[in-house]
Amino acid sequence: MKTKKKVAIVTGGASGIGFYAAQKLVASGYHVVLGVRNIKKGAEAALQLKSASADADVDVLPLDLSDARSIREFAEDVAGRFEKVEILLHNAGVMAAAESRTSDGWDFELATNFIGPFLLTNLLLPYMDNESGRIITVTSDEYEKVKAQDINIQNPLERKEKTDPMRWYGITKLYVLMFAIELQKKLERSGSNIKSLTAHPGLAGTDLAANIPSPTTRFFMKFGMKLMGQSPKSGARSFVHAALSADVKGGQLWAPGGFGGLRGAPVIKTIFPLALDRDVTAKVWSAAEKVTNMPFSIN
Q1: pTM (2 d.p.)
Q2: Residue 220 has pLDDT above 50, yes or no
Q3: Residues 49/22, Cβ–Cβ less than 8 Å
Q4: pLDDT of the residue at 233
Q5: Which residues contact 223 (CB under 8 A, 6 or more apart)?
Q6: Which residues neighbour 172 within 8 Å (Cβ) at sequence distance 6 or greater?
Q7: What is the 3-state secondary structure (H, E, C) of the chain?
Q8: Residue 211: is its pLDDT beyond 60?
Q9: ∠ at Cα 214 (210, 217), nearest 5°?
Q10: CA 131, CA 210: separation in Å to the nearest integer?
Q11: Minimal CA–CA distance to 83: which of 18, 6, 170?
Q12: Contact call for residues 93 and 138 (beta carbons, < 8 A)
């Protein structure tokens, strides 16, 4: 029998910000699904979440956002278990990873940060609660360093030659922001009340830098995160606010409002102008539809 409890999906919820977001969702009465690559780590996280509450419901399902087959299997599993999904929190991501290709021929970092969430969202849209559903996609203010000329406009899912790793990361997070905003427009035009929002944690001491190939860069990035940033628990506040607060609206971006946007309580942030470029957004969305063979459909 399918559960009728409120359901929240958190990708990459086995550790860091995703774990603390899942913790808040469990405490708020949600049946939480952790979509994770590492099932062992996911199971350990689930035990921690359940230990805090006797009636906590937590499932752990395998999910690799860089693999189309894994994404489709995850979506099928969710559809078979639950009547509706209230919250879809796209937390999983990688930063400045070594350039590589997935089995689908996608750039690994772009797949994990953007193409995978794009595909999973569209697969789950028919199962989202049409009245109270929320889709929160995690971005980063690294997109603010991206200029229009950095984008390969003829093929936006491919890096331009000699693109700096952190610039490419910023581009993937710009696409995330574009996706969330465009998704909100499509939902509104379709008559749906589902909200699409973005959030970012500021600078938080997580394992996001673990995939950076350069040991020196990786060390200084982690050091900077811990020195100047906030804890993963504090970093989760923007995501939790976007997921649970009554004052949010579709299309908004929630981020820390403290020093330099690195820490602090969540506030609404002005959307980066390039993310509102309709021509670029249309090309990015069209390219994502083509490689995933997944056009937008709410029904």
Answers
A1: 0.91
A2: no
A3: yes
A4: 86
A5: none
A6: 109, 110, 113, 114
A7: CCECCCEEEEECCCCHHHHHHHHHHHHCCCEEEEEECCHHHHHHHHHHHHHCCCCCCEEEEECCCCCHHHHHHHHHHHHHHECCECEEEECCCCCCCCCCECCCCCEHHHHHHHHHHHHHHHHHHHHECCCCCEEEEECCHHHHHCCHHHCCCCCCCCCCCCCCHHHHHHHHHHHHHHHHHHHHHHHHHCCCCCEEEEECCCCECCCHHHHCCCHHHHHHHHHHHHHHCECHHHHCHHHHHHHHCCCCCCCCEEEECCHHHCCCCEEECCCCHHHHCHHHHHHHHHHHHHHHCCCCCCC
A8: no
A9: 80
A10: 38
A11: 6
A12: yes
Residues 26-55: pLDDT tens digits?
999 999 999 999 999 999 999 999 998 778
What six digits make up the tokens of 166?
């952190």
Here the tokens at position 51 are 């230990």
- Cβ contact 198:121 at 8 Å: no
Radius of gyration for the alpha carbons in the chain, expressed in angstroms and rounded: 18
Residue 20 identity: Y
Q: Is 96:145 a contact under the CB 8 Å cutoff?
A: no
Q: Quote the pLDDT of residue 156.
A: 97
Of 170, 92, 185, the C-alpha closest to 137 is 92
> Residues with Cβ < 8 Å from 293, sequence gap 6 or more?
none
Instruction: Sort residue 162 into left (φ over 0), alpha (ψ -120 to 50) or beta.
Output: left
pLDDT band at residue 217, thresholds of 50, 70 and 90?
low
| Strand 7-11 with 58-62, pairing | unpaired
Whether 209 shows a pLDDT value over 60: the answer reads no
Write out pLDDT tens, residues 227-276: 455 677 888 999 999 999 999 999 999 999 876 667 688 999 999 999 99
Average pLDDT, integer, range 118-137: 96
Looking at this protein, which amino acid is placed at residue 148? A
Give yes or no for a contact between 70 and 39, defined as CB atoms under 8 angstroms apart: no
